[in-house]
């Protein structure tokens, strides 16, 4: 059974159709990259799956739980309790981190385990220390986000998402707000997580990274999934004209 | 004026300082929570409530506080008296409540209560706009991050949003508090016995402008203290940006 199933998802902002009939699955342990030009609907897709936007129609199933169904052409969401449970199965790492500036690194990470999962604080701190070690941030637990580099902030936000032990972790252009030097450290962390069989969906503009780390790539354009497949075939010898065009322009830039 | 007279004026003004301070503190005590409530009402999704709140803010900020004080002190008793008379004339049952209001008007605290009500309602409108500005300056990403972590609306507000709003509204709030220190002198218009009123009286007694300067010094010192207090509060919140 797929951990995430999306079927016929659609979403409009006013008259603008941003997502048109999006369907894809994510399997346990898979690393999926979503690529495509700006305005192709990548971020909106991710935000719909994460309940940050309400879709207009389609179906979303997370870990066997129906989050969204469509009845008689109308989007029907699961009840509040189920939505909350589903939300906790999914972690999200934002493009601009969205750390809580008034809380220290440690407080940022244990906030949800302690106040949402009602975990014992000492236990949460121990787990947070483990995560910080994994992120190479040992010794930074008392620092505030403003005292950290962008790369460090992003690693804290990854640790914060992981502290809830999600089944599925989403990244919304996790390196777009970072300068190229700091991009590498985030990609390394994601690579580490991939090795541990963490299920991840990554919206990214880092083509090389998408090719190296993911085992499934989705190319979106104009609100549709134009093409999807394993990275070697999609990046190596795609037949699709639109994909070719996009990748060519990308190569030209770098 | 000789030195002894200056000392005497200062002593008398000092005697009336508590009245000024009482008005200042009671206004803060009520206007800040009220301001928060007004912010909340203004953001109410039920439009009529939001409109009504806007109207209230418009009136409070759009007319002089001095006028509002006079209106509260003279107009309300007149209205109550008018209601009492007409109730008496028609012999209606509403007389009990109006009687109660009329008794309030004659209580010895009436002047002070009127002042606090007028000041608090006026300042709440300003505070409400400051708080709204602070609230709306918090990036939407903070709400989204909290929601992704499964936090409830109440948790998000009290644990994530509010602490950040408090930091952001401190500079604007300190401005308003400094103005309030000086605005307490408006109470002199209904002859509330505070520093300004006494200073004016002593200007007449001594035929000198010096009492006015001494009063000015009082306000200046009060505001110096307020300023230092806010600098300390700002420092306290400086541990993050």
Which short descriptors sum up this protein?
heterodimer; A: 254 residues; Rossmann fold; 9 helices; globular; B: 241 residues; mainly alpha
Strand arrangement across the biggest beta sheet of chain A: 7-8-9-3-10-11
The string of secondary-structure elements of chain B, in order, is: HHHHHHHHH
**Can you identify the CATH class of chain A?**
Alpha Beta
Coarse morphology of chain A: globular
Number of domains of chain B: 1
If interface size is counted as residues with C-beta under 8 Å from the partner's C-beta, which chains form the largest one? A-B, 27 and 19 residues
Reported CATH architecture of chain A: 3-Layer(aba) Sandwich
CATH arch. level architecture of chain B: Orthogonal Bundle
- For the secondary structure, the number of strands of chain B is 0
- SSE order of chain A, one letter for each helix or strand: EEEHEEEHEHHHEHEHEEHH
Sheet with the most strands, sense and barrel status of chain B? none
Helical content of chain A stands at: 25-40%
Extract low-pLDDT stretches of chain A: none
Which spans of chain B have pLDDT < 50 for at least 5 consecutive residues? none
CATH class identity of chain B: Mainly Alpha
Mean pLDDT of chain B comes to: 92
Helical content of chain B stands at: over 70%
Question: How would the global form of chain B be characterised?
Answer: flat
């Amino acid at each position: 059974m797929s951990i995430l199933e999306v079927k016929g998802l659609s979403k409009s902002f006013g008259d603008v159709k941003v997502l048109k009939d999006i369907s894809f699955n994510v399997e346990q342990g898979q690393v999926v990259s979503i690529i495509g030009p700006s305005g192709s609907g990548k971020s909106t897709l991710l935000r719909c799956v994460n309940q940050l936007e309400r879709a207009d129609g389609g179906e979303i199933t997370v870990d066997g739980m129906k989050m969204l169904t469509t009845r008689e052409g109308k989007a029907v969401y699961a009840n509040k309790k189920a939505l909350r449970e589903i939300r906790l199965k999914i972690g999200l790492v934002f493009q601009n981190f969205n750390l809580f500036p008034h809380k220290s690194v440690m407080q940022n990470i244990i906030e949800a385990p302690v106040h949402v999962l009602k975990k014992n604080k000492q236990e949460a701190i121990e787990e947070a220390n483990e995560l910080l070690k994994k992120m190479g941030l040992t010794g930074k637990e008392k620092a505030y986000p403003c005292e950290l580099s962008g790369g460090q902030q992003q690693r804290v936000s990854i640790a914060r998402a992981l502290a809830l032990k999600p089944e599925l972790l989403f990244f919304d252009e996790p390196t777009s707000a970072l300068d190229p030097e700091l991009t590498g450290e985030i990609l390394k962390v994601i690579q580490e997580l991939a090795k541990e069989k963490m299920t991840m969906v990554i919206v990214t503009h880092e083509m090389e990274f998408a090719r190296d780390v993911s085992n499934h790539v989705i190319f979106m354009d104009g609100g549709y999934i134009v093409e999807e497949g394993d990275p070697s075939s999609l990046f190596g010898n795609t037949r699709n004209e639109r994909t070719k065009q996009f990748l060519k322009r990308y190569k030209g830039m770098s | 004026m000789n030195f002894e007279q200056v000392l005497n004026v200062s002593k008398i003004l000092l005697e009336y300082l508590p009245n000024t301070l009482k008005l200042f503190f009671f206004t803060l005590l009520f206007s800040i929570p009220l301001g928060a409530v007004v912010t909340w009402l203004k953001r109410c999704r039920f439009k009529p409530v939001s409109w009504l709140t806007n109207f209230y803010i418009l009136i409070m900020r759009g007319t002089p506080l001095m006028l509002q004080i006079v209106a509260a002190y003279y107009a309300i008793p007149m209205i109550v008296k008018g209601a009492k008379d007409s109730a008496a004339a028609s012999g209606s049952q509403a007389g009990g409540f109006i009687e109660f209001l009329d008794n309030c008007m004659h209580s010895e605290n009436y002047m002070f209560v009127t002042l606090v009500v007028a000041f608090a309602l006026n300042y709440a409108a300003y505070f409400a706009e400051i708080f709204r500005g602070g609230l709306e300056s918090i990036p939407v990403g903070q709400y989204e991050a909290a929601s992704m972590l499964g936090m409830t609306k109440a948790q998000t507000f009290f644990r994530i949003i509010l602490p950040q709003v408090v930091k952001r509204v401190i500079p604007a709030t300190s401005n308003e508090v400094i103005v309030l220190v000086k605005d307490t002198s408006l109470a002199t218009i209904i002859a509330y016995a505070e520093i300004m009123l006494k200073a004016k009286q002593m200007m007449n007694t001594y035929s000198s402008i010096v009492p006015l300067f001494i009063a000015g010094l009082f306000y200046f010192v009060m505001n110096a203290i307020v300023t230092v207090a806010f600098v300390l509060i700002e420092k306290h919140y400086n541990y993050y940006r």
